[in-house]
Write a structure and sequence with these properties.
heterodimer; A: alpha+beta; seven-stranded antiparallel β-sheet; six-stranded antiparallel β-sheet; B: alpha/beta; Rossmann fold; five-stranded parallel β-sheet; two-stranded antiparallel ribbon; 46% helix
């Protein structure tokens, strides 16, 4: 293009502003409110400034703005590196860009940058709902681009502003629809790696989920969190609910307040020998991003996913935190034996109690050891204690410094973490090696999609005791208090009635979750392995990345050729809707007894209708006008204009013929 | 044919003065050749499209009258060649005669050197004389004694011929017939027209009283306007459908050539111009189709249909919107 870039009209500027707004809003869920507010204020300010016909802003204002944003960013993040500071910076810059957007060229740059910003929002959230929301942003971006096209400027402006938007939006949607096959082609054939090539720096602690520490109340937040933790597709029939203990971090060290994970080293490679029993259960887990390295598996995992370590405590730790949706396969043995021989240091660690804490509980354990014949009796005594006098509640009273003492001999109310912690302290007091296992228990089996949904609210803590000759054994003290918790889940246990679960919304929720599950599995988790699986039915067993690349180039090339041919033919195909409308007109006339013969031209036919006069006066004149318009559209121009065709078709649709009576 | 067509994109092709002059010219010819409005329109279309006209019918139905009326109405230099069995090419083209004073041969132009040439009863002449005329029609120039002489512009040949089954005629070969853009028949006049003809004064007197309605400049202008008449993609689709049907029709041995297709479009344009439109309609194509196609189609041996029948069938069978 030569010469200066044309100044934007207000209408064009509004479209660009809307596109920028959409890109900024896409980041709103994870940006600090102040950044979002600043960016939105800037967009609004530039729009108002432009509307008042304000001139270009002096440079110092831009400098001040840059300074303000830089200050806010540094205060908020202390860095500009990383996913969140980066996107905050992008949003701020994008909003400022609008202030200096005056010409078509500026607008193109703004739209380009807005596209990037919008895309980067997908680094935070790849759920179906969010993807659809960003899609709306893409529609706006394309609409703004279209509005910048020269011919759109000269187009007449319809009266209502909402109606004025529709043609542009529709054109944008049509463009997207045309591009869809190409996008699909890229999605299917762009060579995928089994793991991402790059990743954004993780934001630890940003998400709720199981952690490697447990202090009073830490699980409580989770129990009220309804979001999905992971979904499980079982290879065969799912095991009974009471067996669904999803093992997570194992907490051994207790300092009187907080339980902590202990590095136990890698489990012996002969894991199969260490475990024995019934047939293994195979399943695939799609884990939501947790920003933690913990993987969950049924008690206890035998086959583990790649890049993952199985600790001596049978918990799975991935090399990197799970910062995005992660799908893995595992197999577990429900009837297991491990650590038949306890090493000295592990025995010491699982017997250790912090000095000066919970004296009454420790003394209770010691007294059981003195009075009761064996370990079994001690375990049973503890469970009986819980069963007889304790309540399960999600809102327990606060506990003091000696939290276990307060709980056991004072409040007697609590939920899994209280029971697990108290139980382990009692066992250690009695000289039985014990530790806390965290994870999830149960899950909701979605009958629509045939998978198990485990929510954060299914988070659970239970205990493990070591018995000579038997190894580690799971003991769930919560089950002794509230069997409902294990049978129906935490919320059912607190609310008591299972009917609470029923109702139409449950079915709806199942379906929504099924859609999310399918989206995760089919789209977000589409990796190299799944790509190969997709091509296998086509007889391609092993495919090299460059073969894929050629496939991609070939397929997109074919589509490009098809699109070019289509574009070349489009002027001729334009006649097709006109033909259809004219056929409709002739059809209506045929139904009132004046059919057109195939070789009759419009002029002849119109004249014949005028002579024969089968129609009422009012109708006849409208029909004659329609014929005149048709002739004008089809024969008085080299190619019929689309607007005219649409108008003609509309009038034919509205035509109601009345015969002369 | 005067239908008002609103909302048309093509501009009116003529200024009102020129258009009125054209209408007057057509009306004047119709005043002499009674009851033959369609044929008169075709004759004018042929002139405006820059083609040559062949009028074929029985003696005495007004072929020569039409040609004379055209010549008198169009202010063009006119000559008439009566074709006979002993006509020689030089009788048409002209001869080089030795001029004693100059000591050189001088070309004396024949009757062909006129803007409107009436070639009467063309099929009574020998093929040799016929081809001299037909070549001149195609080339718009003649060559005599090695020198090429341009013919005047506009150059418009109106030939008449008797139906082929009459004795003493040499049929024009199919390839030569192609030189005529349009071939029209006149047929007997209908009852009213014939009565008017019988009661009115002598045609020759009428022709003598005719005044020129279009001068050479106007004629050239009109021909130029005819080439500017808009032809839409949809109309070309229709023309192609007609051409295609003529080539695949079971009863037709030889269909229409691309040249016939070009002639069809040109004639349809001129027809639209006569109707005062700046764009072509399927009706224009249909109006000129028989005159364009009938003398160019060659029926299959076993068809038994006349060429006119075939042209009509093609029009009936090819759909148009």
């Amino acid at each position: 293009m030569s010469g200066p870039s044309p100044i934007l009209t207000m209408r064009q500027f509004s479209w660009v502003g809307a596109a920028v707004l959409a890109a900024v809003l896409a980041h709103a869920p994870h940006l600090p409110a102040i950044i979002t507010a600043l960016a939105l204020a800037l967009v609004a300010a530039s729009w108002l400034h432009r509307r008042r016909g304000g001139s270009a802003l002096p440079g110092w204002i831009k400098l001040v703005l840059i300074a303000v944003f830089a200050l806010v960013l540094i205060v908020q993040y202390r860095s500009v590196i990383g996913r969140e500071p980066g996107s905050a910076l992008a949003c701020a810059m994008l909003a400022s860009k609008l202030l200096e957007t005056r010409t078509r060229r500026d607008a193109l740059a703004a739209i380009c940058f807005a596209s990037f910003t919008l895309m980067s929002a997908l680094l935070f959230d790849t759920s179906l709902a969010f993807t659809l929301a960003t899609f709306a942003g893409v529609v706006l971006l394309l609409a703004a681009l279209r509005e910048l096209e020269p011919q759109a400027v000269t187009a007449p402006k319809p009266a209502s502003s909402l109606r004025a938007c529709w043609p542009t939006l529709r054109a944008s949607l049509i463009s997207l629809a045309i591009a869809a096959p190409l996008a699909l082609c890229g999605f299917l054939f762009i060579p995928r790696l089994d793991s991402p090539l790059w990743r954004t720096p993780a934001d630890a602690g940003a998400r709720t989920g199981i952690s490697d520490t447990m202090s009073p109340g830490s699980v409580q937040n989770l129990l009220l969190d309804d979001s999905a933790a992971f979904r499980v597709d079982f290879d065969g029939t799912p095991p009974p609910r009471a067996q669904l203990y999803w093992r997570g971090p194992v907490l051994t060290d207790f300092d009187g307040e907080t339980w902590r994970r202990r590095e136990t080293g890698i489990a012996p490679p002969d894991a199969r020998e260490a475990t024995a029993g019934s047939a293994a259960i195979g399943y695939a887990i799609t884990l939501e991003a947790s920003d933690k390295p913990w993987l969950f598996a049924l008690d206890v995992p035998v086959d583990i996913p790649a890049e993952t370590q199985r600790g001596r405590d049978m918990s799975l730790v991935r090399r990197r935190p799970v910062t995005e949706l992660f799908r893995y396969r595992a197999r577990s043995l429900p009837d297991y034996r491990f650590d038949r021989d306890l090493s000295a240091d592990l025995r010491a660690a699982t017997l250790a109690l912090p000095g000066g804490f919970n004296p009454r509980s420790v003394e209770q354990g010691r007294s059981w050891r003195r009075e009761l014949p064996d370990d079994d009796a001690i375990v049973r005594a503890a469970l009986d204690l819980f069963h007889d006098a304790f309540f399960y509640t999600l809102s327990p009273p606060p506990l003091g410094r000696d939290s276990v003492d307060d709980f056991l001999f004072g409040t007697k109310r609590g939920f899994c973490e209280h029971f697990a912690a108290a139980f382990v302290v009692l066992m250690r007091g009695a000289g039985i090696p014990a530790r806390v296992v965290t994870g999830y228990q149960g899950g909701y089996f979605n009958p629509v999609g045939d998978y198990l949904l485990v929510r954060q609210s299914d988070a659970h803590a239970w205990a493990e005791v070591w018995r000579a000759g038997r190894g580690w054994m799971r003991v769930d003290p919560t089950a002794a208090v509230s069997p409902t918790r294990v049978e129906f889940g935490a919320q059912a246990a607190t609310l008591g009635e299972r009917t609470w679960y029923r109702g139409w919304w449950l079915a709806t929720r199942n379906r929504i979750d099924l859609v999310n599950h399918a989206w995760n599995n089919l789209v977000v988790q589409f990796n190299g392995q799944r790509q190969r699986a997709l091509l296998r039915p086509l007889g391609i067993d092993h495919i090299e990345p460059d073969t894929l690349l050629w496939l991609l180039i070939g397929a997109s090339g074919l589509m490009l050729v098809a699109a070019t041919l289509w574009a070349m033919r489009t002027s001729r195909r334009r006649a097709a809707p006109l033909d259809a409308a004219y056929d409709a007109l002739c059809g209506k006339l045929a139904r009132v007894g004046a059919p057109r013969s195939d070789n009759e031209g419009p002029l002849t036919y119109a004249r014949r209708l005028r002579v024969a006069q089968p129609l009422s006066q009012r109708c006849a004149s409208e029909v004659q006008r329609l014929f005149a318009d048709y002739v004008g559209l089809r024969y008085a121009r080299a190619f019929p204009p689309m607007e005219g065709i649409v108008e003609f078709a509309r009038r034919v649709r509205r035509l109601r013929l009345e015969t002369r009576s | 044919m005067s239908v008002s067509l609103a909302t048309t994109a093509a501009a009116p092709p003529l200024d009102s003065g020129l258009h009125r002059a054209l209408d007057d010219a057509v009306a004047q010819v119709n005043g002499v050749v009674l009851g033959k409005a369609a044929q008169v329109q075709l004759a004018f279309a042929c002139f405006l499209a820059g083609g040559h006209l062949l009028i074929e019918d029985l003696p005495g139905v007004g072929k020569t009258t039409l040609a004379h009326a055209l010549a008198a109405t169009l202010d063009l230099s006119f000559s008439r060649i009566q074709f006979t069995a002993d006509l020689l090419p030089s009788d048409i083209i002209g001869v080089g005669i030795y001029e004693r004073g100059d000591g050189a041969f001088k070309f004396h132009p024949g009757p062909l050197f006129a803007q409107l040439v009436l070639a009467d009863e063309i099929n009574r002449a020998t093929p040799k004389a016929q081809s001299a005329l037909l070549e001149a029609m195609a080339e718009h120039q003649v060559t005599a004694d090695g020198t090429t002489h341009a013919l005047p512009e506009p150059f418009f040949v109106v030939a008449t011929q008797n139906p082929l089954d009459l004795a003493g005629t040499f049929a024009l070969p199919d390839s030569q017939l192609d030189r005529f853009m349009l071939r029209i028949g006149l047929d007997y006049p209908d009852r009213d027209a014939e009565r008017a003809l019988l009661t009115a004064s002598d045609r020759r007197e009428l022709i003598a009283r005719l005044v020129p309605r279009l001068d050479t400049t106007q004629a050239v202008e009109l021909r130029a306007a005819a080439t500017r008449v808009l032809v839409s993609a949809a109309l070309i689709d229709y023309v192609q459908a007609l051409l295609g049907a003529s080539r695949s029709h079971a009863q037709i041995r030889v269909g229409l050539s691309p040249r016939a297709g070009l002639a069809l479009l040109q004639a349809a344009r001129a027809h639209a111009l006569l109707d005062g439109r700046g764009y072509c309609l399927p009706e224009d194509v249909q109006a000129v189709f028989a005159a364009i196609a009938a003398h160019r189609l060659i029926p299959a041996a076993a068809s038994g249909a006349t060429r006119e029948d075939l042209a009509r069938r093609l029009l009936e069978q090819v759909a148009v919107r």
